[in-house]
């Protein structure tokens, strides 16, 4: 019997259903909401949270958007954009070592009220309230030996400095099994529940180290409150070998690192979602991370104020892929700044139908040029998402006149020197180092050309592209100072893979030199930061693909035969067709999302 169940693919489903916990019903469909991170980083204020909540209540709540999440470091009074203030951070912490909201940023928290007044405001509008926290116990609580509520031990009795987060050192690890460890987590969630918390995103919890025992302590602490608090683990990618565990203890978990408005990062989600697809079940959702749409980067930890760098076609791709995969959707832009197009995407009834009602979701194919996903809809209907992933090859590496070794956190820099005799053009290129492009921040330090007696520091380019953000002069692509191998430089160019910077070269210059290196913004991270540098004297790009292409799908593969009706879910247009192949014309980087119903 077991053998037949395995062959039919039913045993895995049965085991997942049996593993369902009551808390999975708290997120019966993928959570949808707004998070402050992409636009305000660690600096969001109460007024900004309320403005986004007001917009959500008016324009989005009727479509199912209801979570409002205050992201990182709401407990610091003097944080900053483009990084974190770890020099003289002003922490707000109570007598039991629990962080409390910074009153200068959240005035309603004064008098020990915490986030309750803000949560009450959201609840009065029919919305739900969430916060971001870091795994562990505050370093400040350990230093001051603050007591753990309900015990006779202090924070100094339950911590370890091992495995401290590399990119933000607010917290120490809590040692599982020690008296006071579970009690500390109990105490913070008691406080959060008293505020009226509905959602918690916990960072430094799942990658690159998966903290199994701390996740279990958190799960116990949430359940003990009796309040329905949705648990989201971060960052990603969550290790696949812990998929079963995270599915049984969390409502959503990250499948990628921080996702920004980069086509390269978006394209990676096709492979990511393929490998995570089997781990989705009701109430437990693999999370493709936030939607970097609308106006972002206002005071972000990385990047400058901008409307999303995604084209409209790329936004259709993102929303179609998130819907057919059934990823949670957390919008990252400042909602009051939305334009009509952005609002139309968020409220599209067909897309939301796929997100909320589809089942048996699965990829049909995924190749370098195209991809398709399908799912079952109501009755005998099928949903279909098709994608045109075709790209121009930006960098044909074999034509380079110089290339670096692989640059990563172990080998962070290399001196570049290239013969450019006779060249009229110079192209400085950086590619991802064969892995994902998480944190691939790279610097060209003092890029200079020489003719034997004179030199020119390259500061004015003809054009430039960056995989994320904007190519930056004399600063890293994230807006921070140029730092390589711990040394700060005043002159250079900051980029993010994949990147090409083009220069015109005066006649007679024969040599190019620069220090190439991984920017500190990447080197300080837990994961990512692997790049390779190249120098070209001719355009390194390959031929451009067609602007549109047909993406054929064999409808027999999804159980549709004969005559059928196609509804374009983005436009609402309906057509009747026949034949075994459906082959819509899709723009490059674009997508189509359809509902297909057989006509008897």
UniProtKB/TrEMBL annotation:
EC number(s) from the headed UniProt entry: 3.2.1.22
What's the catalysed reaction? Hydrolysis of terminal, non-reducing alpha-D-galactose residues in alpha-D-galactosides, including galactose oligosaccharides, galactomannans and galactolipids
Top-level EC class as recorded in UniProt: hydrolase
Q: Which UniProt keywords apply?
A: Disulfide bond, Glycosidase, Hydrolase, Signal
Domain of life here?
Bacteria
Pfam (any one) = NPCBM
- Protein's UniProt keywords contain Amino-acid biosynthesis: no
**Which residue positions does the secretion signal occupy?**
1-19
Task: Please give the CDD domains that the UniProt record associates with this protein.
Answer: GH27
Residue stretches making up the Glycosyl hydrolase family 98 putative carbohydrate-binding module domain: 452-568
- Say yes or no: keyword Signal present: yes
Give the family per the record. Answer: Belongs to the glycosyl hydrolase 27 family.
Protein name as catalogued: Alpha-galactosidase
Q: Which organism is it from?
A: Chitinophaga horti
């Amino acid at each position: 019997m077991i053998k037949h169940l395995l062959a039919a693919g039913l045993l895995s489903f049965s085991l997942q259903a049996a593993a369902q916990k009551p808390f999975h019903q708290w997120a019966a469909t993928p959570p949808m909401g707004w998070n402050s991170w992409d636009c305000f980083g660690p600096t969001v204020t109460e007024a900004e949270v309320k403005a986004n909540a007001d917009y959500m209540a008016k324009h989005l709540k009727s479509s199912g958007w209801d979570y409002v999440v205050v992201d990182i470091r709401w407990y610091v009074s003097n944080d900053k954009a483009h990084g974190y203030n770890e020099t003289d951070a002003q922490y707000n912490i109570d007598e039991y070592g629990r962080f409390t909201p910074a009153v200068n940023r959240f005035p309603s928290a004064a008098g020990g009220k915490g986030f309750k007044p803000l949560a009450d405001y959201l609840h009065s509008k029919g919305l739900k309230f969430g916060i971001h926290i870091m795994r562990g116990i505050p370093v400040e609580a350990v230093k001051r030996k603050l007591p753990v509520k309900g015990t006779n031990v202090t924070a100094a009795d339950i911590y370890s400095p091992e495995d401290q987060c590399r990119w933000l050192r607010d917290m120490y690890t809590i040692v599982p099994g020690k008296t006071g460890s579970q009690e500390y987590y109990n105490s913070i969630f008691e406080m959060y529940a008293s505020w009226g918390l509905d959602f918690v995103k916990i960072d430094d919890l799942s990658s690159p180290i998966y903290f199994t025992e701390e996740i279990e302590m958190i799960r116990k602490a949430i359940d003990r409150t009796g309040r329905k608090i949705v648990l989201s683990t971060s960052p990603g990618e969550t290790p696949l070998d812990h998929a079963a565990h995270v599915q049984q203890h969390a409502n959503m978990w990250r499948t990628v690192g921080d996702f920004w408005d980069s086509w390269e990062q978006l394209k990676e989600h096709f492979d990511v979602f393929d490998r995570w697809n089997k781990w989705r079940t009701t109430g437990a959702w693999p999370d493709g991370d936030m939607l970097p749409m609308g106006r972002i980067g206002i005071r972000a930890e990385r990047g400058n104020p901008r409307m999303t760098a995604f084209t409209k076609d790329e936004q259709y791709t993102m929303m179609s892929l998130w819907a057919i995969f059934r990823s949670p959707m957390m919008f990252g832009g400042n909602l009051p700044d939305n334009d009509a197009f952005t609002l139309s995407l968020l409220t599209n009834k067909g897309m939301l139908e796929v997100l909320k009602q589809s089942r048996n979701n699965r990829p049909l194919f995924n190749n370098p040029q195209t991809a398709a996903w399908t799912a079952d809809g109501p009755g005998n209907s099928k949903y279909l998402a098709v994608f045109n992933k075709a790209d121009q090859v930006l960098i044909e590496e074999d034509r380079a006149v110089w290339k670096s070794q692989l640059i990563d956190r172990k080998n962070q820099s290399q001196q570049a020197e290239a013969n450019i005799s006779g060249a009229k053009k110079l192209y400085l290129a950086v590619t991802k180092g064969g892995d994902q492009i998480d944190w691939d921040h790279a610097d060209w330090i003092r890029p200079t050309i020489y003719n034997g007696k004179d030199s020119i520091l390259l500061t004015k380019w003809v054009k430039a592209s960056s995989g994320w953000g904007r190519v930056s002069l004399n600063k890293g692509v994230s807006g921070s100072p140029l730092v390589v191998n711990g040394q700060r430089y005043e002159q250079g160019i900051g980029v993010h893979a994949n990147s090409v910077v083009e220069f015109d070269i005066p006649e007679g210059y024969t040599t190019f030199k620069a220090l190439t290196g991984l920017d500190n913004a990447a080197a300080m991270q837990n994961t990512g930061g692997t790049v390779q540098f190249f120098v070209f004297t001719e355009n390194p790009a390959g031929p451009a693909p067609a602007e549109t292409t047909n993406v054929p799908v064999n409808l027999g593969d999804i159980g549709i035969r004969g005559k059928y009706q196609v509804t374009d879910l983005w436009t609402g247009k309906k057509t009747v067709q026949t034949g075994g192949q459906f082959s819509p014309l899709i723009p490059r980087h674009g997508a189509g999302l359809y509902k297909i119903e057989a006509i008897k």
